[in-house]
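User: Sequence in, structure out. Go.
Assistant: Echoing your sequence, followed by the structure tokens.
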Amino acid sequence: MIFVDTSALYALANEKDPDHERAQQIFNRLLDEKSALVTHNYVLVEATSLIQNRLGLRVARHVADECRRFTIIWVDELLHQEAVLRWANGRRTLSLVDSVSFAVMKQYGIDTAFAFDSDFVAAGFNVLNATRRR
């Protein structure tokens, strides 16, 4: 299973993003390999909001439609509270959404992320591409 982060979704959606080509290559390879792609609903909310704000509703709707290919893990109260504790006691730069992502990855035994966010590497996960910090 491969966890899909907001940073990867944004790079895929934005043709002007410096990581766009690399994101397309990785995503196409994952689809060709029929990799199990997983994310959670907080990533979907964060990504579609960011994309709508920066790239428009049409692009955000396209991304939302594409995410139907993924297994979506719905964050419940227990998972949310675990992530809040990790976030509140962690580094200042770690986002709550990343905290939820790490909790999801740990809970489901996922060790690899499709991300352009070095926080995943810092948290001990394998990253398909961590070229820069977002």
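User: And one key feature?
Assistant: The chain is about 55% helix and 10% strand.
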